[in-house]
């Protein structure tokens, strides 16, 4: 399912226009992104939790040359599915 298909499904399920569903989806994604950027987590009970995980700096290898390279520390978004979501897909 891509974004436009998700907007269509949201519009049908909530009995709203597609443009309203698109604005709601954009507002959700923007809110989650800005909250994660501030270092906080977003928990949607029954669906899951969005959080930021920090990855430490490490030494890696260039696969072409075998030379050691430094991989910088980074912050990556993560998602942990909630119980209701896990149960829904089984």
From TrEMBL:
Keyword DNA-binding applies: yes
As recorded in UniProt, coiled-coil segments are none
Provide GO CC annotations from the record.
cytosol; DnaA-HU complex; HU-DNA complex
Which residue ranges traverse the bilayer? none
Tell me the PROSITE patterns matching this sequence: HISTONE_LIKE (PS00045)
Task: State whether keyword DNA-binding applies.
Answer: yes
Q: What molecular function does GO assign, one term?
A: DNA binding
User: Mind telling me which Pfam families this protein's record contains?
Assistant: Bac_DNA_binding (PF00216)
Its family?
Answer: Belongs to the bacterial histone-like protein family.
- Main role? Histone-like DNA-binding protein which is capable of wrapping DNA to stabilize it, and thus to prevent its denaturation under extreme environmental conditions.
Protein name, entry field:
DNA-binding protein HU
Q: Which organism is it from?
A: Lamprobacter modestohalophilus
């Amino acid at each position: 399912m891509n974004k436009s298909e998700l907007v269509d499904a949201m519009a049908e399920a909530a009995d709203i226009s597609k443009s309203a569903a698109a604005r709601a989806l954009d507002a959700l994604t923007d809110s989650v992104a800005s909250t994660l950027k501030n270092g906080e987590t977003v928990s949607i009970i029954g669906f899951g939790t969005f959080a930021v995980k920090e990855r430490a700096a490490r030494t890696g290898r260039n696969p072409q040359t075998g030379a050691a390279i430094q991989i910088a520390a980074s912050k990556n978004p993560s998602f942990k599915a909630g119980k209701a979501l896990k149960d829904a897909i089984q």
